[in-house]
Amino acid sequence: MYRVILLREAEKHYTKASEKLIRRINKAIEQIRLNPVFGPHIKKLHGRLENKYSYVLGDWRIIYEVDMDKKVIEIWYIETRGDVYKKR
Hints:
alpha+beta; 3 helices
């Protein structure tokens, strides 16, 4: 299983989220830990976010990068769909 690290930007949005959303995010992170690159809610990104993946969680996106050798997942962003792609 992979180790998950929340980077500063992701942690900022995670701590401000409602309890209901946090439960949904936690379930999504567990799914990502089990299989970080394949799944019905996972999409490999291109362009400025190349080498990262997006987990679709309703209107929210979890953007993360996977280091297969070290078995580490770095979660970069947890934001709404409209915001997460605009800034990057």
